[in-house]
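Example 5.3 — MIP18 family-like domain-containing protein
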Amino acid sequence: MTTVEEASYALSKIVDAGSQKSVIDLGWIKNVRITSPRSIITLALPSYANSQRDRIVKEVRKILLNFNDIDDVQIELDNSSPETNSSEVNTPQLQDIKDIKKIIAVSSGKGGVGKSTIAVNLACSLSKLGLRTGLLDADIYGPNTPSMLGVSEENPKVHGSGNEQRLIPIEKYGISIVSMGFLIEEGQPVIWRGPMLNSIIRQFLYQVEWNNLDFLVIDLPPGTGDAQISLAQSVPIAGAIIVTTPQKVSLQDSRRGLAMFKQLGVPLLGVVENMSVFIP
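Solution (predicted structure tokens):
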């Protein structure tokens, strides 16, 4: 009969795509149980590893079904994951990030106005001034900064295990970069509701080795939704920049964004009017 030790050893061959560490060592697979002919395991993925879920599940089933006395694999999801902790979502607390001095949020009322371009150029400019700079792509549904910086093929590494796991940012042009774009396949949609969005943003803030930054530039998604509220209620923001274009509809949405930051108590550093003129 297959033992728990044998099954766990076999499952330890499954590794995280970024860090190449075993999912057993990372604590992503736990509570391995064997009740012949059934095997039961618990899958506890952090939010930033959700893009690997299908692959890991497939490999788990393949490995366990290779044992002669196992013909059924049951996979349980760990319900204690941050996505389902309603108290964290409903009662967020403002908390400094030890390794970051100042946070600048770049936002826009609507998409397509060049918000990510402004965020990337701002981060590059701060880095050129000799300031230690990070760039957090919090546009979870449309992460573009990896492509803009030429690092879309990179896989961030993870060190530590359990609750001590930390994501290592990708470095380019002197900027420490973290983006959802590193954690999903190209073209893969992120179909998440508010609590999961809040959770991944908090993990990007608090479970990343930011390494003593002078500035963290955060590229927010367009609009006035969960991401903006979650950020403003999680960390002290030094100021926000709103990006717009001269068109009336863009300006209308920008005013809503400005009003949102004012209501959340976030200082406004300025408004950038992008694409102001056409140069043939």
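Remark. The two ends are 74 Å apart (CA to CA).
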